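Give me structure tokens for this 415-residue protein.
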Amino acid sequence: MNASFKQQVRLAYFVFDAIFVGLGLLILYGLSGLLVKLSWVQWALDYVDCGGSGIASCLGVSSVYRISLALAAMHVLILLMLLLRNGCSRVFNEEVWMFKVLMIVLVFAGCFFIKNDSFKAYSNVAMIFSFFFLLFQIVMIIDLFYTWGVNWVKNYDEGGNGWMYLLIFTTVVLYAGSFYFTVNSFQNFGGCGIGTSTTVVNVIFMVVAAVLIFLRMNPDGSLLTSGAVSLITSYLTWSALSNQDEKCNKLQDLSSTTIINLVVGLIFIVTSLIYVSIGSSEDNSGQVAPGGVNIPQAVLAEQKNEDDAKRERLHDEENAGLQNNKGKEELKDLSLKIYQTNSFIYFHLILLFASCYLAMLLTNWGAPVIDGNEFPNFKEGNRSMWIKLTTAWVTMGLYVWTLIAPTLCPDRDFS
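Here you go.
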């Protein structure tokens, strides 16, 4: 495998968390109605009082909070073990997977003894963590889009004519998606409340970002990257406005609004977490460094290096029974060397925040009734609207800064 050891472990955690989130989605959207009909589930839940109206209240929207809390608890425990920076840190991070599964199951089951109303406090804490995760997610996605655009343009410059057509097609698709959300925002939210003003702000951003590309203030800027960021801000603006109160919201009761919000939101979080899991610090764009701190470089793992190759060789010798005492000591030292850095600490901190964000994403930032056993559409919520609008505006400001910074700060290295 070309991936480094750190990247392999990170990818394993991404898949691990994704499986449990998938189970949560199944319970919320498909299995809750079936589970309440099973006799053994009814028997088990007879001993539980979720505080709602019947058994279904334990398996509906509240189950999302329970799974979110179970995943968050696991990552908090791993973070505490990582702070020890010793052999226990390595074992707990790389091994004992059955213990982690059992822990999540037990915490999830134990949460049934917590009344649904108590999760309102967890929802408030998760909301704070989620806002910071959204900002982090934007930084990583902008960095990814920069790397994506630079690599495709480079392939085209090296004589790959097919890349030209792929660049044009992808750019057109990205801007088409941006125009779709923008037109939809004008049609459904214009002339009422803040619908028109926020949509106009997004249109101005799209125009400014495109003009700055043609001015070549940043040599690494491209219409591909601008189109991708424009799609993000257009979606966030539309999604925020779809959470307005009913007076200014024509999309309030449409199931398609729920589907688009969930699908696009999940695509963004999956994209950012896969990038965090398998992206390499050496290949980050270097363009997104708010406050002079290159966040992508700090959180991404290193590429496969000599230590990884040596570790693989020593593991092979150990499995073949050919390893001597010196080799065992070398393998131990290499295994612990990773835990003297903050790489995995940053990673599990990100997954902790992501666990909280998933609860917000799937419950519209705590707006639906927790006791509900169905979730047919998003409910209005000013908290959700303003968090998404703030994220969109931060994205606009951050991206415009990356386009003009190389010209304004010529002495700084953005490569």
